[in-house]
Design goal:
four-stranded parallel beta sheet; 39% helix
Length: 335
Amino acid sequence: MSALSARIKTHTSFPENSAHVATLRRVLLANPRGFCAGVERAIAAVEAAIERFGTPVYVRRAIVHNRAVVERLEAKGAIFIQELDAVPKGAVAILSAHGSARAIKEEGNNRGLRLVDAICPLVAKVHAGVEAWYRAGRHVLLIGHQGHPEIIGTLGQVPTGAVSVISHPNDLEMLDLGSNTAVAYAVQTTYSVRDAKALIEAIHARFHDVTSPRASDICYATSNRQSAIEAIAPQTQLVVVVGDPMSSNARRLVEVAEASGCSKAILVEDDTGLPWDLIGKCDIIGLTAAASTPEISLQSVCDALSKFGFALEEVDGATERVRFRPVSLDYSVDL
């Protein structure tokens, strides 16, 4: 049992007939929440590389979008850099879970770096699909947020112009593509399920020849966390999402909560961001954590709300059993 689970059990152990139960201020904890298998795998890759090769180990960009995670790994000896030209020749360089363009991998190999690719396997699946559709002669419509690292990495798998990024149905109208163009679509793994559905419907309405992934590109963790907060949001006056502002999946959880009927949804990194004036007006709060959020950040929020007089209640949700093989540390990346 985790430390957080133990605290939840403590804070919900009130007698059934107690008058306190009727007036209890409650926090509904969404399930599932927090780290997904891809995030755990990427973090473990950095830790394993430090243990095997010693420090420093270089990491291109944030391994996952969470400042607390990055700072913890920095304390262990990881050095986060923006580009590979900052890495000394022969050093270990780890590529982030968001995926990297082919040109980045080629640069690392050409400079003699010992590359370790920590790409999430579900992002790698999107890359493979986009490459296959490009080779088949289809124009790819990539549903996602322009400029997000995952989108940049996916665009970098094929020649410029082979993929169009769309974030809104209006983006389709701006494309210089005829309705008979053979297209395929892919979706950013952390995109909103609702928004993706609307865009996919718009794609089918615009084009006659559309190929789709065999299964949704939106990862299981994103879908599960969005469904979980969607289920409890209507019961609350406030939903608190614990996550980094840079995290796409964290921001999507805020949007889903707001669209699902709660009065207000906010994003905080930890307990220091909690708006106590607003919280003081609430009887029921929904609480979740993004897939890149460490338990310690969620724990700080739970502790603060408990001290303020809220009882923590687990809400039933999907059980996640997904596990990925550890990242290979043999300095090989697929090109």
